[in-house]
Amino acid sequence: MLIFFFTLLVSFSGFLLLFLDTQPEQQRSHNYNHAPLSHPIIGCLVSFYQNRHRLLFLVWKMKRILNVGSEKSLKEAVKLVHESVVKIIKAKKDKIAFNERNCGMDLLDRLLKAGHEEIVVRDMVISMIMAGRDTTSAAMTWLFWLLSKHREQEASLVKEFSFGENENKCLDYECLKEMKLLKACLCESMRLYPPVAWDSKHAGGADVLPDGTHVGKGDRVTYFPYGMGRMEALWGKDCCEFKPERWFDEESVKKGVLKCVNPYKFPVFQAGPRVCIGREMAFIQMEYVVASILNRFVISPVSDDYPRFVPLLTAHMAGGFKVRVHYRNGTQRIKLE
Fold it and tell me: 286: domain CATH number?
């Protein structure tokens, strides 16, 4: 579970800092194991995932009624998460009231200034933490595994991290935008192993799909990104192969960008009016973590066994990704800000 929990905690820390303008002192000093907010949230989610598949429906229902065992632990974890997030919200409210003119405009600021009730803001913050934390960590875990099986792609990535004679260049936002191969590798990894393997929408009104299928009001329509990423009709005969180069064409290479792919063909971040609002931030976080690690370390799997893809609420690698970490030969080429 090393890579999963490392990427999970790093992405969680980045979320706190960038979206909520808050970060526990322990996280600032990189002591992630004792971060007061990350601990209850991670514990709550792990408990949820484990209990969801461990017990029969009637058993956990009875435990919930009696408030015993795993249901009692889950209830306590949820309470702790709520209290932790509310504490952050109240601190932000005090900050806004004390110095409103000079207060920043992070996501939490905007939610509070929009006049939403505290419980609504609390639930929105928790949803965003869950959506942005588990998904990015799962995506990076699969990418590290794929790169361990495709060393030539990893070598190309490491080369992309090099800036020639400019060895003092920092890894910042502008630098990340130049790393097209890194973004292509992430897209290709998520095509094969999407963080959300399936998703559903409920029709707000009656409609007819392009193929003539009638959808009634309130009907549930489910789509399957995991299966779509392996459809020969969409991605060609090599659809099951890890090929980051499929995200480039002659025109995109000339422009220095990835080729445009229809989001309905690659619905990892959804599409249309419901497209993921954190898409670009997710890419920035993942690119920063992957570049920071691969620039300095070589990740090697402990076992040669093929990992199992588990499509839960957020899809992940069964048992985590157990690895050996070695320093990469040569000097460090990029600095971290």
Answer: 1.10.630.10
